[in-house]
Amino acid sequence: MAATESRRTPDSSQRELATTFALLDRNRDGRICANDMKTSMRVLNLPISEQVASNFVKKLAKGGCDIREEEFALWMRTCNDYNNNSILQQAFDALDTNKDGYITKAELQTGLTLLGEVVSDTVLSAMMEEADLDHDNRLSFQEFSHAVSRRA
Ligand SMILES: [Ca+2]
Ligand SMILES: [Ca+2]
């Protein structure tokens, strides 16, 4: 089973969908509103701005204010069809402000500041250190997603 881990099976994406949805649906009402989205990202230490959260919800909910699971599933499928994009990628992109494909400590700090989080340098360094598996002082998407899935 581990040998095929890198390849997506319908089963694993289904599981990923359910996990991601449950993760985002904070109050378990089967819908994700912009607030759920923002809170979840905070809990996961994935700060996204209010703007990003509400745009995302608007986009998926087709003008409504919350996302139902089937809308979410549809979006996940579309994203997977394109470039294996995911909600993590969105969060990653939001943090990677200079779009070089890596999140630096400064970018992480900027993201947190945007959310109104005041994080001490010590905490920030600890977060980076924990996630930065190859110790190059920046987070690749792999390192980022690994860190997040460990928290989930
Ligand atoms: Ca960057
Ligand atoms: Ca790294």
From TrEMBL:
PROSITE patterns referenced in this protein's UniProt entry, alphabetically: EF_HAND_1 (PS00018), EF_HAND_2 (PS50222)
EF-hand domain sequence ranges: 12-47, 83-118, 119-152
Family annotation (Gene3D superfamilies): EF-hand
Swiss-Prot/TrEMBL keywords: Calcium, Repeat
Listed GO MF terms: calcium ion binding
Protein name, entry field: EF-hand domain-containing protein
Organism the protein comes from: Ridgeia piscesae (Tubeworm)
